[in-house]
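Subject line: Sequence and fold of a protein, written as structure tokens
Body of memo: The sequence and its backbone structure tokens, given next.
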Amino acid sequence: MSLNLNLKIIFQRFCLILICLVVLIFQADIPNLKALPMNTYQGEIVIEELRLKVPADAKVAWLNAEREIWEPWLSSQDGFLGRQLFWNKEKEEALILVNWENKELWKSIPMSEVNIVQEKFEDHVKTALNIRENPFELIYEGELDKQR
């Protein structure tokens, strides 16, 4: 009788462990197993986010300068996928979203080149508005990662 009782307890424990293992296996988060390792993260699309103060009376000059100065230069850069320009009338604020093939290509552009283009942009705006200072204050600069 004692042997039967021991076998019954062993069998119950075995079944409990087996059930727990099956539950754990099926609860595994399979998408995480297919996730990209961190060293290949550079291959993911990244979006540059810029927010500028753009007064209503300077909006047309801003759009023209974006189209004539930044757009041709950006289009010639490796990894540039396009961009979107938004303007909030109430806040008089612009949102610029620039899509890049990956962060590595975006960040490989020398800041000296970016500064030259920014200077041309500001000169274009100052001439168009007949002013001495750039009217567009940079409020925020950051990046967004595309979510799946």
Notes: Helices lie at 2-27, 30-33, 59-75, 103-107, 111-129. The first strand starts at residue 46 and ends at 53. Residues 31-41 have pLDDT under 50 and may be disordered.
